[in-house]
Amino acid sequence: MKNKNIVIALLMFSSLMACTPKETHNIVKETHVNAYQQPYSGKRVDVIIGSFENNSDYMRGLFTAGSDKLGNQANTILKTHLQQSNRFNVMDRQNMKSNMQEAKFMGAKQNIKGAHYVVTGSVTEFGRKVTGSRMLGGILGSSKQQTAYSKVSLNIVDVLTSQVVYSVQGAGEYTLSHEELLGFGGSSGYDATLNGKVLNLSIMEAINNMTRDMQNNVWKIEK
User: Fold this and answer.
1) Which fold has domain 42-215?
2) What is the pLDDT of residue 52?
3) What's the order of all strands across the beta sheet hosting 141-158?
4) What is the mean pLDDT of the chain?
5) Which of 127, 161, 121 is nearest to 59 (CA)?
6) Helix/strand/coil for 132
7) What is the pLDDT averaged over residues 143-156?
8) Are 82 and 88 in contact (CB under 8 A)?
9) Cα(72)–Cα(77) distance, rounded to whole angstroms?
10) Taking the CA of residue 26 as centre, how many other CA atoms within 13 Å lie in the half-sphere pointing to its CB?
């Protein structure tokens, strides 16, 4: 009887522990282009972000939504990394109406600065795949990998001549994997965040190539 009571008490304790909510917090380290916070004494280029479209086959099927989610996501990532590269003055043209309204509230006149160049881009390649293996038909264990790949192209266009004065590409691959052995290990479902992570990698690579070419005078800023 005593042993039975001990077992019941342990089961009740285990049940309470299982129902206790657990919270975890973790700060994810940001990723930056190579030129981030590096000393730079040259001239910063005044640019605006033009169109950035998803021209890959991904998310462009018959049953996808009308908005270009991948292109919009890439646009936002590009704007951030261009500004953080310390080589560009990025002009915001997406919030012109709200900026104008705030200037009116302040009783001030806007002094909008023009940009000599437009940065346009496109996602030229994008894909995802899932690979894995099973040991003894899954009895001993299994492994699974989710891989996302993207390639982007960027063009620098002179607003006065409409000439493409510089072009660059960047590509990236991001893999999430897990293993399970004899019932131990993790499992994972579809991870949608891989799309943003791999876009971030490919755009960072393109901007790293761009700033390197600026440093080496492969393309020069119009004075």
Assistant:
1) Rossmann fold (3.40.50)
2) 92
3) 88-91, 45-54, 117-135, 141-158, 164-181, 184-185
4) 81
5) 127
6) strand
7) 90
8) yes
9) 9
10) 3
Q: Is 9 left (phi over 0), alpha (psi -120 to 50) or beta?
A: alpha
User: pLDDT confidence of 185, banded at 50, 70, 90?
Assistant: very low
Is pLDDT above 50 for 120?
Answer: yes
Closest CA to 123 of 195, 211, 27: 195
Whether the pTM exceeds 0.85: the reply is no
What is the tens place of the pLDDT at every residue in 36-58?
988 888 889 999 999 999 999 88
Beta strands 88-91; 117-135: pairing state = unpaired
**Unique residue bearing structure tokens 């063009």:** 155
Residue 130, both tokens: 């899932």
Going from the C-alpha of 10 to that of each of 1, 17, 163, 182, the distances in angstroms are: 14, 10, 76, 26
Which two tokens mark 5? 């009571």
Domain ranges within the chain, ordered by starting residue: 42-215
